[in-house]
């Protein structure tokens, strides 16, 4: 984790003019205010701000990120203020995940005030409890799936091989079905 405290956007926008995708993930920025300067990020199309837990204010100045089409802000729980999203003329999709309802309503109002309400705005809110329950359930299902198919398959092959061995000793119990299975038996061992 880089844990940058100073606003990284002026330097990134200036030194990486060809940048197409910018992702700032958890703890990559630990400051409270981020400012995208005019003329910065001229080729940026996608930007993702995920779990920047200390970010309180994000400002997009006139002329910043002129080609931005997709913006996702996820889990920035302290973000209260965003200025300039309405200036992003090419913005087509805005996804807000686990954001305060007040913040989402403010963004909607700002976009609507300049006639940009046609932007696809998605707000997904998932509580930590819901996410924990879903992930626990998924792990439990994966465990049962693994147990059922792996161990049941191994046991059935073991029983099958044991039965074949017994049948070979007692040739009177061999049938055409057993002979066909015996011919296919080496394939089971190759699959292991």
From TrEMBL:
Signal peptide (UniProt feature, chain positions): none
Domain of life per record: Eukaryota
Transmembrane portions of the chain: 137-161
Keyword terms, alphabetized: Membrane, Transmembrane, Transmembrane helix
SUPFAM superfamilies: RNI-like
InterPro entries: LRR_dom_sf (IPR032675)
Protein name as annotated: NB-ARC domain-containing protein
